[in-house]
Amino acid sequence: MDLVIVESPAKARTIEGYLGGGTRVLASFGHVRDLPASDGSVDPEHDFAMRWEVSADRQKQLKAITDAAKKADRIILATDPDREGEAISWHLAEILRQKKALPPGGMQRITFNAITRDAVKAAMAAPRDIDQPLVDAYLARRALDYLVGFTLSPVLWRKLPGARSAGRVQSVALRLIVEREREIEAFTAREYWSVEARMKGPGGHAFGARLTALSGRKLDKFALPDETTAEAARRVVEEARLSVGAVDVKTAVRNPAPPFTTSTLQQEAARKLGLSAQDTMRAAQKLYEAGHITYMRTDGVAMDPGAISRARDVVMERYGREHVPERPRVYSSRAKNAQEAHEAIRPTDFARTAGALGVSDLEARLYDLIWKRAVASQMASAQLERTTVDFIADDGSAELRATGTVVVFPGFLALYAEGTDDDGDEDGARLPRLAVGDRPAIDRVEKSQHFTQPPPRFTEASLVKRMEELGIGRPSTYASIIQVLKDRDYVVLEQKRFRPQEKGRIVTAFLERYFERYVEYDFTAGLEGQLDDISAGDAEYLAVLRNFWEDFQPRTREVLERSPMEVEQALDEYLAPHLFPPQADGVDPRLCPGCGAGRLSLKVGRYGPFIACSNYPECRFTRQFAGGDQEGPRTLGDDPATGLPVEVKSGRFGRYVQSGDKRSSIPKDVADLDLPLALKLLSLPREVGLHPETGLPIIANLGRYGPYLLHDGKYANLKDTADLFDIGMNAAVVKLAEPKGAARRGKAEPVAVLGQHPESGAEVKVMPGRYGPYVTDGSVNATIPRDREPASLTLDEAVALLAEKAAKGPAGGRKPARKPARKAATAKVAATGKTATKKAPAKKPAEKKPAAKKPAVKKSAAEKAGDA
Description:
The protein has 868 residues and is of the alpha+beta class. It is built from 24 helices and 32 strands. Helix 8 packs antiparallel against helix 12 (460-470).
């Protein structure tokens, strides 16, 4: 009998069906062991020896594998075809050797890029040994991540209160987000104007032409800096007699994009489907395990020749011969030593569309995206026509230009067009047919005001794209890196764009000041290159570790010796150009606006960084470190009712508005606060009216968790701040009548459906609960750890949580009736000061009762012995 070991139970069931009798397939449920999360797991003093520990939730599965291995004729390690998969196979091989569980036929490794019958059988016919260079690259990466995390994080804890962790790639990704925010804050908008004539050509076809030259002078972007200049230019165009001076028509060809890699799939799923990187990878994993797509962790863009042929057949059937290029398109990866260099992500069967798979809606949408991209990659190029028409005034006073792009032949665009980060359409409008000398009618001439825009904050798609461009990390790790930044509260997603939190900004500043080399983009990319060299067999992993540690350890020791005050002063000096930029009026930017005499400086407290006055405690002026009220207290005007000033201030918990003794926090969804809105906030709580049934008032107010309604002790959350002032009686009554506890009564929708339990076959779901989210298979409920994002839980992790919960058995032996009785008795003893033996005689009427209590006492002692 052959024993085949894969990673997931879903894959195990499918592959066992392909291989038939004489083969047993077991799942390892991912990694079976890892470095313990404690100091000393990697020992640089002993040539970076690593101490591995079998995961507690893998003990049972590992025993099953070991027992089966002892009975097998041969072991086949069939984990995923990437570095992590190679590492899992290596771990399994090491453990089985240690347990002396190797069968007579030995142990071999196979890989397949798709879970199909043909792919699996072909892999079984061509086994190989474990790829040691790939394993070495994994060991080096794991050791580096551990050394950085467990060496640098304690430095942060001691020098920066509130900072949680640092990471080799995580901190560099955070720096990208923080640097973009600095660019946005330093940006000064510049005004400019444009003039456009709205014209009509033959047949009444409307189009626009923009002013490009005035009185023979070419206009650049800022040639019309204000409205006065723009209006003068507009009148010139309005009075001019324009004719077509030149028509330039150029043909262009646009080629389809290659099939998806891990990175491009994450980017496109974010743009077109609004999915996070983690959601994308989780859905892709399920599609892969079900045999619908090829392996989804890949840097390769090539497709199997057979798959290319099938894709071309689909194009022929659906779009005709003109949409099939003469020769198959062959793509190659530009990445150096592309990690997981296998096929691109594609359907395993092009004949199956998303509707025929029987998968969830999310998985179906992702599959449809993968299918379209792969098929489109083998379609004909799109033929475009780009037209430019120049218009000249008879007296030479003005020149205008109109541009348009027309799709002459759609080619691959008939099926798929790649998205952009800003969702912009690069194709202009179609222009009418015009010839030199034509005089189209001018309908109207308009001037428009514009302002230059700062660079946009990163979306998940643009962040992944930028990291890949810089060579930071690997696409297979991007989802987990981004999730860590969210979990650490270093960044927050606002309107699907990353904004750094103050905690993330101060951590980045600290690392830039004291560990500049280790957050440099080139250094991080260079280290990734060294890891690639290891996987290719061109470098020795211990040499890479020694070289890194030789510089990193002394730097860490040096920073640890610095006092927190010294660190604070150094950060104040380092961030001065950003925190205290020169003022246009020449006033000292550090001068305290509160007392007018003190000096502002950066402080780092237990709640994070902030700006404070040197005259504390006499002057208690503070302002936020960044992203808040940068000018200190700001007066919006006077309250007409009291005559007192209405001021915007900053406190420990954010911005607030105050007038006299009245104050109100400023909600996060309020960007531009003016006097009328500030007065509304100060007027809260607001009485909406009296409830028509109870006659009790309905109150609208702002609380810790946002706007809400209150009526007769019952609360209802409101969607946004505007509802506080706009909601009427009818809407308030309906809102209060909504069943708040529906989820607790079994009507809740699952947070995620993870799949079938490998043993029971029951559906495993993540559900919202009264005391937090939990995972269930219908019979066992297991709480999800607080540090874990519920929506990101995998089936393997859920099964492990359920197994751990089931192993513990019913809580406390399921004796709930006894415990309250003992607690009540204890409470009485404590209240009266009498002992339990004195209390017993008070219950003499029935002598059988004391005897009945003895078994309970014995049981309690047994329970105590069991707990010990």
